[in-house]
Write a structure and sequence with these properties.
The structure holds two protein chains of two kinds. Chain A is an alpha/beta fold. Chain A has ten helices and five strands; from the N terminus they run ααααβαβαβααβαβα. Helix content of chain A is about 60%, strand content about 10%. The longest helix of chain A is centred in the N-terminal third of the chain and has 24 residues. A five-stranded parallel sheet of chain B has the order 3-4-5-6-7, sandwiched between helices. Chain B is globular. Classes of the chains: A alpha/beta, B alpha/beta.
């Protein structure tokens, strides 16, 4: 087994310590940060996402796998920046105003981070102005908005309207998710995409990236 | 009084449902009613200035609504957590309020004691209960919910991998107290069943793996259900979230009599009933979002269809998928009740005078 495979397996097998040690070994051997990212970290988290989607893994396994991923990322991130390795895209994410639930949003953040995206997490109870300000400052490719209840999801259209009013709607894709949301509701409020869970969120963003690259 | 005078509460009807049999008339089940709904059902009799008033109001509301029981909680067993108050927030996070972060904070935690609960409220309030109705007690959150409350969800997830002995110790402390709580409740003759309320999942998964649930959570409930049955009473599971992976544990291992909490986004009650009928009583199931957004006529029709579906085999009581929060319009809630009241006369209920 190569060290790259060992690192990938450490993430899949939810072993943060082993992931960190193996990343050190890889860097000592001169393996590039981009290779570690693309050959171990992203495929490892993809497998974790697949196992979650298929009901083999549960949230604890995803969180510990994400901890393993973060152990690696904290070591290679400065090298990626130094080497000018671009991230796959930037995503601003937050839970909608009035809503303090963060677990679904955190899972989506972790899986997207594991898929190679830069994540700007605005936290919970985020209002329309805060989303607009973050788009202006961070210039993300996507804005992802989460809601837990039917009573809070009704605030999402206000965010989309505010983005439109600020003249930013064509610069960013709006993704929505959370227990009460559906594809039909996403279309009704003018969002660009909907994902029912964290692994689907990664698939959705990748599909949208591909579609954008193809146009 | 919203129900008619001749629809008297009688726990025997719900008992038939819990035994997976067909009851002699449509049976209603609800876990919690919003305050405004209780006001609507009790009218001028609504009182809430003391805990006892609140209990009596719930008894009267459930009687007025046509139920054969009243839910009751005995205050005092509260696992303290930090509160993070956001005035305009409509939700809270499962990560909020964690107080046990390591072995030391576990040792220092002020565990609530069962002696704080005054169970005599059950017998005192029983004089307000219809003579044939029974109480169904529930607790201030369940075992997993309370552990998540004092540890925080994400911290618990990590702790499951990083400090298994501490996880075991926390579940033990919470589990034994919930067990004692229900043991005390079951000693009252006015109690006909218990609601073991503990959310185990969300829309796609259980909150922790079935393996972890089997290790830390289910053994406690198995014991409580045995104790309930030994007392000649019935155990109702109220647990939100996806349950496919643990349904055999619920039926075969823990041996619950009934399950409550269904969502259209997970398993609509019609599908749940078809899958579970004869093995586990299905309670409620009219999706809360559906009840909030649909018209009263639509709710009446779906309720009637559900009663028709279960008429032959039984093991079903009509109610919401979770509870009746005040954002469900009154007319929508009342339409569901009306469907139950009309059922006997409309479609050949057994006590149809015609």
């Amino acid at each position: 087994m190569t060290l790259i495979e060992k690192l990938k397996n450490a993430i899949i097998d939810v072993q943060p310590k082993k992931a960190e040690e193996t990343t050190h070994e890889l860097l000592t051997q001169g393996v590039g940060a981009a290779e570690i990212l693309n050959q171990a970290l992203i495929p490892g988290m993809d497998e974790v996402g697949r196992l979650f989607k298929e009901g083999e893994y549960y949230v604890p396994e995803v969180l510990v796998a994400a901890k393993a991923m973060n152990a690696t990322l904290s070591l290679i991130e400065p090298l990626l920046v130094q080497g000018g390795v671009p991230r796959r895209g930037k995503i601003v994410i937050g839970t909608i105003e009035g809503d303090l639930h963060d677990i679904g949003k955190n899972l989506v953040s972790m899986m997207l981070k594991g898929a190679g995206y830069a994540i700007i997490d605005l936290g919970v109870d985020v209002n329309a102005n805060q989303f607009v300000e973050a788009i202006q400052n961070e210039q993300p490719d996507y804005v992802a908005i989460s809601a837990l209840l039917t009573s809070t999801m009704v605030n999402i259209p206000h965010v989309i309207q505010s983005i439109r009013t600020a003249g930013l709607r064509n610069r960013v894709r709006v993704l929505v998710g959370g227990a009460p949301l559906t594809q039909a509701y996403a279309e009704e409020i003018g969002a660009d995409g909907y994902a029912p869970d964290a692994s689907e969120a990664v698939s959705l963003v990748r599909q949208m990236d591909q579609a954008r690259a193809g146009t | 009084m919203f129900r008619s005078q001749n629809r008297e509460p009688d726990f025997e009807n719900l008992k038939q449902v819990l035994q997976k049999k067909a009851p002699p008339r449509a049976v209603l089940f609800e876990f919690l009613l919003g305050e405004n709904k209780e006001k609507r059902l009790t009218g001028t009799e609504f009182r809430s200035s003391s805990e006892f008033d609140r209990v009596v109001t719930t008894i009267k509301a459930f009687d007025s609504g046509g139920y054969d029981f009243a839910p009751i909680i005995v205050r005092g067993l509260v696992f303290e957590r930090k509160s993070h108050f956001v005035s305009h927030a409509l939700t809270k996070s499962l990560n909020e309020g964690s107080v046990i972060t390591d072995r030391q904070s576990f040792e220092n935690y002020a565990w609530p004691e069962i002696e704080n609960c005054d169970f005599s409220i059950i017998s005192k309030a029983a004089s307000y209960l219809h003579p044939k109705a029974k109480f169904i007690p529930f607790s201030h959150d369940g075992i997993l919910e309370n552990v998540i409350g004092i540890v925080g969800y994400e911290r618990l997830c990590l702790m499951l991998y990083e400090d298994e002995p501490l996880v075991s110790a926390i579940f033990f402390e919470v589990g034994k107290r919930i067990h004692s709580y229900f043991k005390a409740c079951l000693s009252y003759p006015e109690v006909g069943a218990v609601i073991l309320n503990d959310d185990w999942g969300f829309n796609t998964h259980t909150l922790i793996s079935p393996k972890a649930l089997r290790k830390y959570v289910f053994p406690w409930y198995k014991e409580i259900v045995v104790m309930t049955h030994d007392n000649g009473k019935y155990a109702i599971l109220h647990s939100c979230g996806r349950y496919d992976a643990i349904i055999e544990d619920i039926i075969g291992d823990m041996r619950f009599d009934a399950r409550h909490s269904y969502e259209d986004g997970i398993t609509p009650v019609e599908a749940a009933y078809e899958a579970l009928k004869g093995r586990l009583a299905v309670l409620g199931g009219m999706d809360v979002g559906f009840m909030a957004r649909s018209g009263a006529e639509e709710i009446y029709e779906r309720s009637t269809r559900m009663l028709r579906r279960s008429a032959g085999l039984g093991g079903y009581a009509l109610g919401s998928g979770n509870s009746i929060p005040d954002y469900i319009p009154d007319e929508n809630y009342l339409a569901m009740l009306q469907a139950a009241f009309d059922w006997e006369n409309r479609e050949g209920g057994r006590d149809d005078p015609n």
